[in-house]
């Protein structure tokens, strides 16, 4: 039998073996101690971070709820302000339309005043006078033109204010839309949990987006929009009040001037009728006097012819008695009587001729004046016809005596998006 072969290698002593066992035990115990400390620290860290995370999530949710409340409060404020702006725009639009209607209503008075002035230019002769009617008509036309200018200015101002309100309304709509979008975003964030399927890790989520604003700037922006809207509404309300006051004052001025013009026209028409009636009476009496004068002229002429015959008789008798012979050619009482008769007849004939000439001259003057009066009567009748036509033309300006007309319904005014009411996308 062969001998066992010895294995090569270092042999350790029993003490080395014991030391090694002790080292292994000590190392194991140390590792276990370290592990236990790490486990305790890990548990403490887990508990601490869990509480911290839960608290942070709670605080974040609380802040989100506060933010949602702030945004919702500003959204309500902006909606209320936008509604007031819409109401003010509708009221201002109605005021503007009323001013435009008042402006359109001045066209007829100006046309009537111009027509009356044109008609009265057709008067002729002494009837073409610068009377109070012409003065009132010119004043009425000038007042109407001034009223048109003032009303047009009011309409232009109202249009400009409407444009300003429209721009402010657009700004409120944009801010309100942003508030609603932000509210939707924050409400969505508030509804998320760790179990929500929408959550995921994002790239650089802590970055500050460009265009970000501070909370103070955020509040100031909405405050500025509301303040601008309030100032614009106050200006619009004052403008509506001023426009209403100005429109009422102008209407009173126009009505006062219209009454003054019509009073002057009626007064002038009355004077024209009086002058016409007086002239017709004068013409009638002149015609009667002319007829009597013609009769008297015929009488004077007939009497003159008769006196001429008597004078011929006296002349013939005197001439015939000059043929008496001798002492019979005596200047007796007959001779004296015939001479006296001849003188008397000659004086009478002279007087009759003079009176006949005066009567004929007077008749000629009456005929001439009668012609002038007829011409003036024609002009007066024509002028009176023009006055009556003017009065008839002015009847279009008389206020309606029937029931008051219903006010025109306001035209709905669209906002910047073209819709009559605010409709934002949810």
UniProtKB/TrEMBL annotation:
It holds the Pfam family Tektin. Belongs to the tektin family. The keyword Magnesium does not apply. It comes from Betta splendens (Siamese fighting fish). Residues 28-49, 391-426 are annotated as: Disordered. It is found in: Cytoplasm, Cytoskeleton, Cilium axoneme. This is Tektin. One of its GO terms (biological process) is cilium assembly. Residues 414-426 have a biased composition (Polar residues). The gene is tekt2. InterPro entries: Tektin-like, Tektins. Residues 269-303, 342-369 form a coiled coil. One of its GO terms (cellular component) is axoneme. The keyword Acetylation does not apply. Keywords: Cell projection, Cilium, Coiled coil, Cytoplasm, Flagellum.
């Amino acid at each position: 039998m062969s001998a066992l072969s010895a294995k090569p290698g270092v042999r350790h002593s029993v003490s080395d073996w014991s030391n090694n066992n002790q080292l292994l035990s000590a190392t194991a115990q140390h590792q276990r101690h370290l592990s236990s400390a790490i486990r305790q620290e890990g548990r403490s860290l887990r508990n601490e971070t869990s509480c911290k995370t839960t608290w942070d999530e709670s605080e974040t949710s609380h802040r989100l709820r506060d933010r949602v409340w702030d945004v919702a409060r500003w959204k309500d404020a902006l909606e209320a302000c936008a509604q007031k702006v819409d109401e003010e725009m509708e009221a201002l639009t109605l005021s503007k339309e009323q001013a435009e209607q008042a402006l359109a209503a001045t066209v007829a008075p100006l046309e009537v005043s111009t027509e009356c002035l044109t008609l009265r230019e057709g008067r002729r002769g002494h009837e073409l006078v610068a009377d109070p009617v012409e003065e009132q008509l010119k004043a009425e036309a000038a007042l109407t033109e001034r009223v048109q200018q003032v009303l047009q200015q009011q309409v232009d101002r109202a249009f400009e204010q409407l444009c300003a309100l429209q721009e402010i309304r657009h700004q409120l709509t944009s801010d309100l839309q942003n508030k609603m979008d932000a509210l939707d975003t924050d409400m969505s964030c508030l509804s998320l949990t760790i179990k929500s399927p929408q959550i995921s890790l994002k790239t650089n989520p802590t970055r500050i987006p460009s265009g970000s604003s501070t909370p103070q700037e955020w509040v100031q922006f909405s405050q500025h929009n509301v303040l601008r809207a309030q100032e614009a509404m106050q200006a619009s309300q004052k403008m509506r009040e001023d426009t209403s006051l100005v429109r009422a004052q102008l209407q009173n001025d126009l009505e006062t001037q219209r009454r003054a013009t019509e009073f002057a026209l009626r007064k002038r028409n009355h004077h024209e009728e009086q002058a016409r009636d007086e002239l017709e009476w004068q013409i009638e009496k002149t015609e009667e006097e002319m007829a009597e004068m013609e009769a008297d002229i015929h009488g004077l002429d007939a009497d003159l012819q008769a006196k001429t015959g008597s004078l011929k008789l006296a002349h013939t008798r005197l001439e015939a008695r000059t043929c008496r012979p001798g002492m019979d050619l005596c200047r007796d009482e007959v001779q004296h009587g015939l001479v006296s008769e001849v003188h008397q007849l000659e004086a009478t004939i002279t007087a009759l001729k003079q009176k006949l000439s005066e009567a004929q001259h007077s008749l000629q003057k009456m005929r001439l004046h009668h012609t002038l009066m007829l011409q003036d009567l024609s002009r007066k009748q024509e002028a009176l016809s023009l006055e009556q036509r003017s009065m008839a033309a002015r009847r279009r300006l008389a206020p309606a005596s029937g029931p008051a007309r219903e006010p025109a319904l306001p035209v709905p005014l669209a906002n910047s998006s073209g819709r009559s009411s605010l409709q934002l996308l949810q």
